[in-house]
Amino acid sequence: MGWLASSVLAGVALVVALGATGALFSARHRLDAERAHRRQAELQLEHARAALDELSQRVAELSVDLVELRRTAARSREMPEFVITSLAETTSSPIAQLMPAPIAHPRARALEDSLVGVLATQQELSPVRTRIVDLVVRTVALGHGVRRALSPDVLDRAAAEAHVARRRSRRNRKREEREAKRLLRAVKEQRAA
Fold first, then answer.
1. What letter does residue 101 receive in the DSSP assignment?
2. What does the pLDDT look like over 12-33, one tens digit per residue?
3. What is the C-alpha separation between 92 and 94, in angstroms, rounded?
4. 100: DSSP letter
5. Domain spans of the chain, in order of start
6. Total-model pTM
7. Separation between Cα atoms, residue 102 and residue 23, nearest integer Å
8. Exposed, middle or buried, 154 (CB in 10 Å: 0-12/13-18/19+)?
9. Are 97 and 130 in contact (CB under 8 A)?
10. Radius of gyration in angstroms for the set of CA atoms belonging to the chain, rounded to a whole number
11. Residues 119/137, Cβ–Cβ less than 8 Å
């Protein structure tokens, strides 16, 4: 019986040792798997951060491009293209080339050209003559602006913009009406409940 008890005890000790070894290997395997998973998560996080940095840099570049495009578009939409400040500075080149007039009015353009040509040769002799030249230049510029404002291209553009604005206001009005009806239904449902 002594050897039976010792062999059972040896068997139990062997099973416990094998169980402990298995548990140790299992724990070590789980720890290695967790470390590998953590490393993989850290790598994915690094890749995500790099992609985010690259994306934010691209967004910054695109926003700079957008601002530049908006400035260019705003400059191109400005109606007064040329402003006459003085006639004495540009006596060598014809000033009429600085003010393009619509082609539909050749007489008005010829009159502007001749008037500007005469005014360009005027010397600043007296304050009265300077005031008269300034008044005539402003009148010519005003006439040119009125002709340009009433040109068919500008009128067509204004009509198109008015049409777009009218459609937009209709859409907004209908949307507001739908929202008001929805809110009214919600209030009625609350009162009923």
1. P
2. 888 888 888 888 888 888 888 8
3. 7
4. P
5. 1-78, 88-183
6. 0.31
7. 94
8. middle
9. no
10. 43
11. yes
How far is 100 from 109, CA to CA, in rounded Å? Answer: 9
Please answer whether residues 138 and 99 qualify as being in contact, where contact means their C-beta atoms are separated by less than 8 angstroms: no
Q: Which residue is associated with the tokens 């500075």? A: 89
Return the residue matching tokens 């600085």: 98
Whole-angstrom Cα distance, residue 152 to residue 33?
A: 77
Looking up tokens 């009406």, which residue turns up?
A: 177
Residue pLDDT, tens place only, 41-61: 899 989 888 888 888 888 888
Amino acid code (one letter) for 94:
P
Say how many C-beta atoms besides its own lie within 10 A of residue 2's C-beta. Answer: 6
Q: Token match 């040509």: residue? A: 117
Backbone angles phi, psi at 189, to 5 degrees: -65, -35
Cα 8 from Cα 65, distance rounded (Å) = 84
Given a contact cutoff of 8 angstroms between Cβ atoms, the answer to whether 100 and 80 are in contact is no
DSSP-H helix ranges across the chain: 2-77, 106-120, 127-149, 152-192
